[in-house]
Write a structure and sequence with these properties.
alpha+beta; two-stranded antiparallel sheet; about 90 residues; 2 strands; single chain
């Protein structure tokens, strides 16, 4: 869990609450729910195996972190690669 009441960098008051995911969805889950097509699923898995860059963007609450967790789970299951994550706010 991550709770921040004051942004130390900007010096202003903010409230943020992040809780670690209890369930990590997979790309297969996205495909099964119709969020990804078979073609999109295959393209993402192929891109991960080929060490290609994937840019994930979207508005607040749109599911970027959830989707990135699905990508990371695929890397963990489909490759022997190691991943180093450096982030200002722990989300992944």
């Amino acid at each position: 869990m991550h709770l921040c009441e004051r942004d130390l960098e900007l010096g202003d008051e903010r409230t943020g609450y992040r809780c670690a995911a209890r369930v990590v969805f997979t790309l297969s889950d996205y495909r099964a729910k119709g969020i990804l097509s078979d073609r999109q699923h295959a393209a993402l898995v192929d891109a991960l195996r080929a060490h290609q860059n994937i840019l994930v963007g979207g508005g607040t609450g749109s599911g970027k972190t959830t989707f990135c967790n699905a990508l990371l789970k695929t890397i963990a299951e489909a490759t022997d690669d190691r991943v180093l994550i450096i982030e200002g706010t722990p989300e992944l």
